[in-house]
Amino acid sequence: QVQLVESGGGSVQAGGSLRLSCAASGYTYSRDFVGWFRQAPEKEREGVAAISAGTGNTYYADSVKGRFAISRDNAKNTVTLQMNSLKPEDTAMYYCAAGFLYGSWTRIDQYRYWGQGTQVTVSS
Question: Which of 19, 38, 49, 110 could join 92 via S-S bond, C-beta 3.0 to 4.6 A?
Answer without folding.
Answer: 38
